[in-house]
Amino acid sequence: LRVRFAVHGRADAAVSDYVRRTRMGSKLIDRLDAEWEWLSRSRKGSRALHRWAEQDAELREFHDLAELVQFVHRRDRACEGDRVLYRLVCRAITDDLAARTVLACMMPGAKNLTCGYLWAHADADESAAAVIAAMWERIRTYPCERRPAKIGGSSRPLIGASGSRGRPAPAPWR
Fold it and tell me: Tag placement on the chain: N or C end, fewer CB within 10 Å?
């Protein structure tokens, strides 16, 4: 099966290179996923979740951080998941583990953005580093007072400005 598509007006050789690099993956993202697998079920994570749950009723129903992230990803409970994410992102300004938990919640989007910005970077790791750095900055400086809902929806405009090293954002897929 051969699929032809254009990426920013370039085709054939550029597309095959793009597809090859996309399938290779990012070591950075693999390491972040492995770290999260351990951290989400660690004693440190459990203590932090317990501490947060003492102050936020929305966080009391979770046994560990992995369960919290799975809940945020549920499409059938999107509003509730957004409230949980909002509680975390407000804590993330001063709490490293809350910020890391928000990043874990946003990793599916980070992976998609990494693939979407491969054209602007030398390889998948460079693209992932740019996306993760921009997301981390956004997480740590999120304007909780101005935007209390749709937390996950705020990363794409930010990445478009900083994830492509000043190059124009990619055209939407059609």
Answer: N
Q: How far is CA 165 from CA 25, 53, 62, 114, 118, in A?
A: 20, 39, 39, 13, 11
Q: Are 31 and 62 in contact (CB under 8 A)?
A: no
Cα 71 from chain centre: 15
Torsion of CA 65, 69, 67, 22, to 10 degrees: -110
| 78/18 Cα distance (integer angstroms) | 33
pLDDT tens digits for range 56-65: 998 999 999 9
pTM of the full structure: 0.73
* Residues sharing a CB contact under 8 Å with residue 154, sequence separation 6 or more, in sequence order: 138, 142, 147
* CB neighbour class for 129 (10 Å; exposed up to 12, middle 13-18, buried from 19): middle
Rounded to the nearest 5°, which phi and psi values hold at 165?
50, 45
